[in-house]
Write a structure and sequence with these properties.
This protein is mostly helical. It has helices at 18-43, 54-59, 68-76, 80-86, 88-110, 115-123, 126-154; strands at residues 13-15, 112-114. It is built from seven helices and two strands; from the N terminus they run E-H-H-H-H-H-E-H-H. A two-stranded antiparallel ribbon has the order 1-2. Helix 1 (18-43) crosses helix 3 (68-76), helix 3 (68-76) packs across helix 5 and helix 4 packs across helix 5 (88-110).
Length: 155
């Protein structure tokens, strides 16, 4: 007895539904508008956080997210290397968001959906995302902290 088994190849590309295209377009527009607003704030030197940092004033050391806004502004203005120097974690997250924006624009315009995104997004566990974000912020803080400690020892 012979059974014909057809091995199904995993799909890489498939047709995007209207809802997927609309969601991707909205996601792209939100990211593009956000980066555009940060670029304008940097160009016109608009202070986004007018209050001084109490932690930095008290201990003369940067806090974990110190420099994120400045890094995002530099990234939005196209100063990618400067953004990584200011706050590596923020620059890395901006790079991830930029790649996601490109995928979203492609999906919205072409109507082609990447099926592996579905499998990835449905299989993702929120605790791993939180852990990854904590690790990224901790590494970025370690870099800025080491830079601040080196500057304090020299001066």
């Amino acid at each position: 007895m012979q059974v014909n088994q057809q091995l199904s190849q995993p799909k890489i590309l498939c047709r995007a539904s209207f809802r997927q295209r609309l969601s991707a377009g909205a996601f792209f527009l939100v990211l593009a508008a956000s980066f555009g607003l940060f670029a304008l704030a940097g160009h016109y030197k608009i202070p986004l956080w007018p209050f001084p940092c109490g932690f930095k004033q008290r201990y003369n050391l940067p806090y974990p997210t110190c420099g994120v806004t400045t890094s995002v502004i530099a990234f939005a203005q196209g100063k990618i290397f400067e953004s990584f120097y200011i706050q590596p974690a923020a620059a890395f997250l901006c790079c991830v968001l930029a790649v996601l924006a490109i995928f979203s624009l492609f999906i919205a315009v072409s109507g082609i959906y990447f099926d592996f995104l579905n499998r990835f997004l449905t299989g993702i566990k929120i605790k791993y995302v939180v852990i990854a974000l904590i690790v990224i912020v901790a590494v970025g803080w370690a870099v800025t902290l080491a830079r601040a400690l080196a500057a304090n020892n020299q001066g």
